[in-house]
Amino acid sequence: MDRTKSDGRTAATAPSSERPTLKTIAFMTGLGITTVSRALKDAPDISSETKERVRLVARQIGYQPNRAGVRLRTGKTNVISLILSLEEEIMGLTSPMVVGISEVLAATQYHLVVTPYRTQGNALDPVRYVLETGAADGVIISRTEPKDPRVALMMERNFPFVTHGRTEMGLAHPYHDFDNERFAYEAVRKLVERGRKRIMLLQPPPYLTFYLHMRAGFEKGIRDFGATVVPFNGVDIDHSLAEIRAAAEALFDAPGAPDGIVSGSGSGAIALIAALEAKGLRLGQDIDLVSKEPHVLLQWLRPEVMTMREDIRLAGRELAKAVLARIEGRPPEELQTLSYPIPTGEV
């Protein structure tokens, strides 16, 4: 018999403080629990209309699968672990990367867990944690080294992963990378076209793979376009903005100061601009600057700066697609992509 609450609602429709379950979705859609479960898993024998109806209700009621139960039944966690250094947060890379990854995972059963670490610590620790505890089904790592121990460990364990950046280990693994060599080469070309001949580079830390790529493009541009390198090796993009500014001010005071700058970091470019202006130099007149940046803010704020954008949101999407494909067993050689600099004014 239908029991009525004091507010007129039946017991069947009364709200519950309990966590929504598959049974809740089944009740609200009029479908069987098995059908609901298979719809959420994107089973091929369930119609697209049914899947969309089930997903809509699941979103509306805030349904989340019980990860412990899923793991007991399938051996999977439905978790992707994104392991990021705090330096990436400082450079403004974390948010767009997370957005890109989340856009891809939204259509799957997977959830994203972000694990931060400091480069002063052991970068292997968060990877070991995932491997030893089974905390995720796949891992995304960044800031790769030419001989990266994290890559070696995950390949040894045959664990699905993808890297934001390449390695030089002679091992085929999934990656997405930005063409830093092309960025640096084109940056030198732009400066020489402006009449600049003495050019400095604010570069990545030498232990990272993309340092090798950026440095190779920079030096090739110097040779091809007949410019001269002004050494700037005391700091890199991982140093604080105050340290970069102080080193640049000292360089601008020295004989043979640069008249052109290539910056491998948008935030680093801000410190360089502060330094040159503190020394009475006029950006776009006395000295020119080309910078890589993940957003368009630098170019909006200082249109004198020539920028080339690295699309970090795109990188997030590519990384997510690659790690999911690797979990499904696709060969790593098919999961290697490269993106290219987007000049100022292009989208």
TrEMBL record:
Superkingdom in the source lineage: Bacteria
Pfam family, one: LacI
Keywords: DNA-binding, Transcription, Transcription regulation
GO molecular function, one term: DNA-binding transcription factor activity
Domain HTH lacI-type: 20-74
Keyword Transcription: yes
Protein name per Swiss-Prot or TrEMBL: LacI family DNA-binding transcriptional regulator
Species annotation: Shinella zoogloeoides
Keyword Ubl conjugation (UniProt): no
SUPFAM superfamilies the UniProt entry points to: lambda repressor-like DNA-binding domains (SSF47413), Periplasmic binding protein-like I (SSF53822)
